[in-house]
Amino acid sequence: MPVRRLSEFIRALRGAGLRISPDEASQAMEAVALVGYEGRARFHDALSVTLVKAEQDRLAFETTFSRFFDGETAEQGADGRESDSVGDAASILPADLLAQMPDEIQSLLNADANALSQTMAEAAAAMNFTDMQVITQQGLYTRRLLMSMGMGAVDDQVIQLSQGSATQQAQADQLREWRGRVREQASGLVRRQFLLHGTGYGRELREQTMRAVAFRDLREFREVQALVRKMARRLASLHQRRLKRSRRGRLDGRRTLSGSLRHDGVPAQLHWQQMPPRKSRIMVICDVSSSVSEPARFLLQFLYALNDVLPQVRSFAFASRFDEVTEDFSRYSPDVAVGRVLDRLSGSGTDYGQMFEAFWRRCERQLDRHTTVIILGDARNNALPEGAQTLAQIRRRVRQVWWLNPEARSQWNSGDAVMDRYLPYCREAHRCANLNDLERAVDRLLLSLKRSD
Amino acid sequence: MKTRIESVEDIVSSFAGQGYICSEQVALAIYLAAQLNKPVLVEGPPGVGKTELAKAASAFLVAPLIRLQCYEGLDESRALYEWKYGKQLLYTQLLRDKLGSMLADTDSLDASMARLGDLGEAFYSDTFLEPRPLLQALRSDEPAVLLIDEIDKADQEFEAFLLELLSDFQISIPELGTVRAKHQPLVLLTSNDQRELSDALKRRCLHLYIPYPAPELESQIVSARVPELDGQLRDQLVAFIQYLREQDMKKLPAISETLDWARALVLLHADSLSQELVADTLNLVLKTEQDVTLARELLPGWLRKFGKR
């Protein structure tokens, strides 16, 4: 198998979401050169050892591998189903007619199923499928494949025959039917190639769309959960908690002095005071009334996926009532949890003033300088008392208050929204209408937490 | 060190000879690492034999094993090199008179400094250098197997510091310059996935994931390590352990626990798994009270279903 097949495979892997550097790719080639192509299991293992660097990529690798290399054997005629469907065309046409046809058609028509697949595979190998990007290109590529197999001549033959006598027209129909089956086989091959190469581009496009689309439309995408997990993982590894900070900060005089006794009073080794590990606590208050419930779902999902970096998250939700929902999220998957929370708390008529009161009553004792309070809501208070004083009270006790608003900035004070009243007490306020906004906001949040310790 | 490895089978059989039974994938990773001169990052749940793999590889290659155990706060002075401060001080004390007489005939401070400058290098020379595992591996006279154990426990800075070693097999020391490996060591890193390792590190390594073994493999391992154990009991034991791994346990039993249990059963002269026997020895396999309780509850059902064969 030439290097080209391998590099196509690597492109397909990249399309499936693996990050493979050129260096890793060349390692894979070296490894394959060492173990050879004969043993399938060993070939597979060599590629997996050099290319799969994280267990979460394993599944994508296995699917792509079997799609790529199993597809190859199927094309070469091992697949019984396909071989059955396309027989040689020579058997359906009378011999004398066949003899009149040009040579290249004869060989094509005389070919049995295996030989036909072989011809098709050869034609396919000469083509470059890696440029295929969108699903509608499949037809074009199928046509190109058929042309390079020499099916053009068959088309001419069909046209010629269909203009002739009745028997010839019947023969034309038979030939047409045979051509249809060959085309089917070819389009199957192209579809497999598209799944390998085209999906990568499509996935990127879909991901970008998913990131930019408003939360309420996100339900229509199936892969959104996976995307959120991926984004959270990236943020988590960016903001990993530093376990210990030695070799900087304040000098630990006692330990340095006692250590220096060994060296005749020369402080050869300096000791630094160990920082206590960070104790940041996050409290999230989410508006889950119908207009804002979708962003809340994603914010909570995001924060709980960041468990490594943010071990202490308490979440609260309110619509007409206010309650803690930490339990639901720690016990159920985000989808189920959101459903449960909505069942319990839904209703219309959000009252921010009352919510702040309830929050204060419930959590007053836990609010300290390690706490960050995040409020997600549109600040539409239905013309009720806004309770900005309580928020100010909360603000004085905690390290920072953040506000994420799913509406555009220009809407923050329109109608019954009273964002202006709350803004003075928020260190940061951001629009949070899609996954991109959310990622940016959480990124900034993690950064602000890191700076503090 | 063995310079030529014939084939993957060679490794498998040599490992088996040492009592380390592994899947072919594991052997292939070692083979590729030795052939391509790349470090291997070994991941997997605790107790599946990641560290053992390094020992087996060192025995197979007839190379010394140099081990660096990582932990929170590990820094260069522990991992790479350190000056022997005590020895340096002792020497200056002892040589004080000598130094005094040497400097006696100099008349100005500058001249004394110049003369001391000539000597200065003497106190930062190999005599006073304490090589730690990484430097040992680089300066070793024969190729070595370097095991960097539990890299996920070390800080991110240390991980970044390792990058130079892993890609070029060299390390920069301010006082000595760049130290290049005399012979490229075979580097194995292990990780328990306590934290995500950086992409840069992963990119430089081959990646091997050792999962819990399949029943046949585990059975082979037990028979190689505890040959005294009766065959039927062994199958029963392996089946029970495999069953436990499917449960929702806090800490799943690993191979090392299976082996401990097998040894205990040999000592107790057991011939089949009975309810009392398992209940008494279960804490060899499961390390938290919660899991033991869960396993006790599951045990009668399992014995009814699979125990009698």
From TrEMBL, chain A:
<dbReference type="InterPro" id="IPR011195">
    <property type="entry name" value="UCP010256"/>
</dbReference>
<protein>
    <submittedName>
        <fullName>VWA domain-containing protein</fullName>
    </submittedName>
</protein>
<dbReference type="InterPro" id="IPR036465">
    <property type="entry name" value="vWFA_dom_sf"/>
</dbReference>
<dbReference type="InterPro" id="IPR008912">
    <property type="entry name" value="Uncharacterised_CoxE"/>
</dbReference>
<dbReference type="Pfam" id="PF05762">
    <property type="entry name" value="VWA_CoxE"/>
</dbReference>
From TrEMBL, chain B:
<dbReference type="InterPro" id="IPR011704">
    <property type="entry name" value="ATPase_dyneun-rel_AAA"/>
</dbReference>
<dbReference type="GO" id="GO:0005524">
    <property type="term" value="F:ATP binding"/>
</dbReference>
<dbReference type="InterPro" id="IPR003593">
    <property type="entry name" value="AAA+_ATPase"/>
</dbReference>
<protein>
    <submittedName>
        <fullName>MoxR family ATPase</fullName>
    </submittedName>
</protein>
<dbReference type="InterPro" id="IPR050764">
    <property type="entry name" value="CbbQ/NirQ/NorQ/GpvN"/>
</dbReference>
<feature type="domain" description="AAA+ ATPase">
    <location>
        <begin position="36"/>
        <end position="214"/>
    </location>
</feature>
<dbReference type="InterPro" id="IPR027417">
    <property type="entry name" value="P-loop_NTPase"/>
</dbReference>
<dbReference type="Pfam" id="PF07728">
    <property type="entry name" value="AAA_5"/>
</dbReference>
<dbReference type="GO" id="GO:0016887">
    <property type="term" value="F:ATP hydrolysis activity"/>
</dbReference>
